[in-house]
Write a structure and sequence with these properties.
By secondary structure, the chain is of the alpha/beta class. It has 8 helices and 15 strands. A 7-stranded mixed sheet has the order 7-4-1-8-13-10-14. The protein has a two-stranded antiparallel sheet with strand order 2-3. A two-stranded antiparallel ribbon has the order 5-6. The two termini are 20 Å apart.
Length: 260
C-alpha cells in the first residue's frame, strides 16, 4: 500500500526556515521532518512513497537522490575520482517524486498522482505533522465502513495553562499546564483513501483537498473519522519546530516508538 505526502506548500507561517527550505525539509533533531514522517509509516511496513512537490522541489529531489551518500561514510580517491561507501546505512524505501507545481492546491496535487496509484486503497498525509497514531488500527477501521475517506481526528494541546480559583479569596485551587483543547476534535492530517476519491476531484480546476473532495464527501456521508487520543503535533511555527526538536532528542520519540 502506497503513502502519498503533500510536500509542496510555501510554509509561510514558518518563514524563518522556509525562506531557504521547503517546509518538509526543515530539520527536527538533525533530520528533515519529512524523514520522520516516512519513518512513522515505515514502522508499519508502508515503504512506498509518492511525494507531491511544489515550492523549492529541487531540494527534496536532491536530498533523496543523494540519500545513500548522506547516510554513509565515504572514501574518495581524488586521483581517479573513485568513491567507496563504508558502513552504509539506508532505508528500504521506494520514493516517487512528483513535481506538481508551486501554486497548485492540495486537492489538485493529489489528482496529479492518480496514474501512480494502482491500488484500491492508499494512505495520505501532510509533510508537517508527527503522531504515534496506530496505522494498523486506523486501516482496520477504514475497512469496516463503506466510505471513501477516513480522517484521523485529534485534540491538540491548548496554548495556555488553565486554572480554577475561588472568586472571593482569589486562591488558585488547581492548575493544568497547556491541557488538551476545549474538547473539540480537529483534522489530524492522517488519511486513508479509496481510489474512488479521484472521482470527486474536478479536472481543470485548482482546488484544496480540504474543500474538494472533503466537503462533498461529508455531505454524501462518505467521510469517516478515526479518533486518536495519543501524541500529535503539527509544525506550524518556529516554536513548534523547537518543541519537536526537544521531543526528538528523547531516546525514542513517540512517533518512532515500538508498534503497539
Amino acid at each position: 500500500m502506497k503513502v502519498v505526502i503533500f510536500a509542496g506548500g510555501l510554509g509561510t507561517r514558518l518563514s524563518e526556515e522556509t525562506s531557504l527550505l521547503p517546509k518538509p525539509m526543515v530539520e527536527i533533531n538533525g533530520r528533515p521532518i519529512l524523514w520522520h514522517i516516512m519513518k512513522t509509516y515505515s514502522r508499519y511496513n508502508f515503504n512506498e512513497f509518492i511525494i507531491l512537490l511544489g515550492y523549492k522541489s529541487f531540494l527534496i529531489k536532491e536530498y533523496f537522490f543523494n540519500y545513500y551518500l548522506h547516510q554513509s561514510n565515504v572514501r574518495i580517491d581524488l586521483g581517479d575520482n573513485s568513491c567507496e561507501f563504508i558502513n552504509s546505512c539506508s532505508e528500504d524505501w521506494i520514493v516517487t517524486l512528483l513535481d506538481t507545481g508551486p501554486h497548485t492546491l492540495t486537492g489538485s496535487r493529489l489528482s496529479l498522482a492518480r496514474n501512480y496509484l494502482s491500488d484500491s486503497t492508499f494512505l495520505l498525509t501532510y509533510g508537517d505533522g508527527l503522531s504515534d497514531i496506530d496505522m494498523n488500527k486506523q486501516l482496520e477501521f477504514h475497512q469496516t465502513h463503506n466510505g471513501i475517506l477516513t480522517m484521523a481526528a485529534v485534540q491538540p494541546d491548548g496554548r495556555f495553562g488553565t486554572f480554577l480559583a475561588d472568586q472571593k479569596s482569589q486562591r488558585v485551587s488547581s492548575f493544568v499546564e497547556k491541557p488538551k483543547g476545549d474538547g473539540s476534535w480537529v483534522n489530524g492530517g492522517f488519511f486513508i483513501c479509496n481510489s474512488e476519491i479521484f472521482d470527486h476531484i474536478p479536472e481543470n480546476a485548482n482546488v484544496a483537498f480540504e474543500d474538494v473532495p472533503m466537503k462533498p464527501l461529508t455531505e454524501q456521508g462518505l467521510l469517516y473519522t478515526y479518533y486518536h487520543n495519543g501524541f500529535w503535533k503539527c509544525m506550524d511555527t518556529l516554536k513548534d519546530k523547537h518543541d519537536l526538536d526537544l521531543i526528538a532528542k528523547q531516546a525514542t520519540p513517540p512517533w518512532l516508538s515500538s508498534i503497539k
